[in-house]
Amino acid sequence: MQSIFHLATHVRDLDGARRFYGDVLGCAEGRSTDTWVDFDFFGHQISLHLGEPFATTRTGRVGDAMVPMPHFGIVLALPDWQALAGRLEAAGTEFVLKPQVRFEGQPGEQWTMFFCDPFGNPIEVKGFRSLDTLYDK
Fold it and tell me: What's the rounded Cα separation, in Å, for the pair 58 and 61?
């Protein structure tokens, strides 16, 4: 079975969401009204509705770093991850966790970065040499 994940979350400004998700992240815009906008979030559907984003705290321990919880994100092939990291850096994105490799040389070796959208919604993007190793132990 193949399926598409859907996430609906709040943002404070749809035009700002369009600039960040569309221009910076490169997500194609889908349907919209005056209170929400959909994006193709790397093959999945994200619906951004006007409202107050959920509260987060840095309580998720990943190695030596504390990352925002809850958060959402995407797993990309490494070349796509590298291209996105470059776009985010060029856009002056403030990172919670700068682009880096973790678990190097171990099962599950991955590149990761954490950042927030302009409304405080935390996003993690992981990169793998092979997506087949995503669940390796």
Answer: 8
